[in-house]
Amino acid sequence: MDLVSVVGLIIGVILLSGAIILGGQPILFIDIEAMMIVGGGTMAAIMINYSWAKLQKLPSLIRIAFAKSDQDSEEVIDLLVQFAEKARREGLLALEQDVMEVDDQFLQKGVQLVVDGTDPELVRNILETKLTFLEERHHEGQGILKQMGVLSPAFGMIGTLIGLIQMLAELDDPTQLGAGMAVALLTTFYGALLANLLFIPMAGKLEATSHEEILMKEVMIEGILSIQAGENPRIVEEKLRAFMSDEQTAEETEEAGVGEQVVMEENA
Questions:
Q1: How far apart, in whole angstroms, are the C-alpha atoms of residue 175 and residue 71?
Q2: Distance between CA 178 and CA 191 in Å, rounded?
């Protein structure tokens, strides 16, 4: 579980709820009709837009949005460097047993292709094809949440129109104006809240997670091909670390500097 995402959602709910409660009469912000218009309309439109097979993935998309990434770039690079050292020392066939213990199926498949003696160009084509389809599946999942982020405010506006129509139809009865106005405003509120606190942020989180995963897969492809080419493990490590951002490199350098300073202080 990604605590930052969960804490962000909790903070948003608490602050908004607190503002509503401090304003007095929080019961005014609960309206079944408005919920039906925004929630029901959004889900109905999504069901029209996407097939059932794709909608079944929605719960897993939400889980991924709040899940912590289990891929560590350092671990992946270290593992590939270890493979490069062993392959250079004992040959590619020596990796056959090690590859079976790899959890990542993409990395496992790539190393297995190399162990089987597949042509390097074919290895690259196979892995890049897998990566392309993976990226398309990710975009598809992001698209569902982005579409929900677009539709919920739209149905909020539809609810506003419904409320205004009901209000105008009861101008001769002042007691009914409040109910119509409440539906008119609350549907817009619900639509904007769902879009900006849930759907759009979750789509953004999925996009960031997808970018990180795609980058790691590209690191794996480059590492696998370098191992197959029999490159020096040090060169392999430098090549793979080139994929890391300047911020990550600077952070590692800073941590290394702090570690050296601590050692010097202890020896002093």
A1: 59
A2: 20
Nearest alpha-carbon partner for 141 in 231, 198, 206: 206
CA 155 and chain centroid, separation: 26
Q: Using one digit for the tens of pLDDT, what is the confidence trace for 83-118?
A: 889 888 888 888 888 888 888 888 889 989 988 888
Q: Which of 236, 253, 256 is nearest to 87 (CA)?
A: 236
| Chain position carrying tokens 């677009």 | 150
* 3-state percent helix, strand, coil for the chain, nearest multiple of 5: 85, 0, 15
C-beta separation of 221 from 128 below 8 A = yes
Place of tokens 């600077």: 250
Return the beta strands (E) in 46-196 as ranges.
none
d(CA 161, CA 157): 6
Token pair listed for 194: 């769902």
Retrieve residue 241's tokens: 């670390």
